[in-house]
Design a protein that fits this description.
Blueprint: H1 10-21, H2 29-33, H3 36-55, H4 59-82, H5 88-102, H6 104-107, H7 116-133, H8 149-162, H9 170-190, H10 193-213, H11 218-242, H12 252-267
Helix pairs in contact: 1-4, 3-4, 8-10, 9-10, 11-12
Length: 268
């Protein structure tokens, strides 16, 4: 008889491995102790690592990261099965049914003669009908709390825009950014730390709205800016290392000059 943990197709093996890991008597004490809440941060982390591998176009690593993300789904499904809520098969069936329902132009009789923009509108209309069926009556209902904050801001703004709560152009958004920046400066100079925190959040929220109006994903834009900062700062470290120094042994003026050198190097 073959070992279910080492032989056979990958998915049945993974399900069997997770079942054993969660076994109270024969499993791993750490895995047995976990809950939905304790595993959720790992799930978010793995999703970000998938995005990171894609951004770096590291396809071998992407394969591994997708496996890590799949493990998170299997982990949650196993815990749900133990509590009699649902199992992995129900998860797979649910998403398969959802894809069929949301693509009537592929799996049904609806016309495929539509633009991607029209398909996006149709998709949102179908999702709205699904929310109505789940008694989610509010415009903002169902926007996940666990999303990265910038991504969630854009999703909230898109929902509000559908019912007309939106600035008509980028000009008004830019005016609002100026207003919020001024309020942040005033808060820094004369208000409490809590009020300054709130004004900073307001400015970030409007910046996300500007990205939406410009059709720029603010989360992706910030990731790109993070990568650029990392790349340029590593060049500063490399040049200083050639002199036997580190950033801690340098002045701000020296590092700023090297930063400009790194910028110029990227333009050539």
């Amino acid at each position: 008889m073959s070992d279910p943990f080492t032989a056979g197709p990958g998915l049945p093996r993974l399900l069997a491995i997770m079942e054993r890991l969660r076994d109270p008597e024969r499993g791993c004490p750490w895995d047995v102790e976990q809950t939905f809440a304790s595993i959720a941060p790992y799930t978010l982390e793995e999703a970000h690592e998938v995005a990171d591998a894609i951004a770096r176009e590291d396809w071998d690593e992407l394969r591994g990261e997708l496996g890590d993300l799949l493990l998170q789904t299997v982990f949650h499904a196993r815990m749900a099965e133990e509590r009699g809520l649902f199992d992995f098969e129900a998860v797979a069936k649910g998403i398969a049914d959802k894809m069929i329902a949301r693509h009537p132009h592929v799996f049904g009789d609806a016309s495929r003669d539509k633009s991607s923009d029209q398909q996006t509108l149709d998709w949102e209309r179908i999702k709205a009908a699904e929310r109505a069926g789940r008694a989610q009556a509010g415009v903002l209902d169902g926007v996940a709390l666990g999303l990265p904050a910038l991504t969630r801001a854009v999703k909230l703004q898109k929902r509000a825009a559908r019912v007309g709560f939106d600035w008509p152009s980028t000009g008004e958004v830019l005016d609002k950014i100026t207003e919020e920046a001024r309020e942040l400066v005033e808060a820094r100079d004369s208000l409490t730390a809590e009020e300054t925190f709130e004004e900073f959040g307001d400015l970030l929220f409007v910046m996300a709205n500007l990205g939406r109006h410009l059709k720029i994903d603010p989360e992706a834009a910030l990731r790109a800016a993070n990568a650029k900062f990392t790349r340029r700062f590593e060049r500063i470290e490399a040049w200083l290392a050639e002199e036997g120094r580190g950033p801690e042994d340098s002045t701000l003026a020296e590092m700023d000059a090297l930063w400009d050198r790194a910028k110029a190097e990227e333009r050539t």
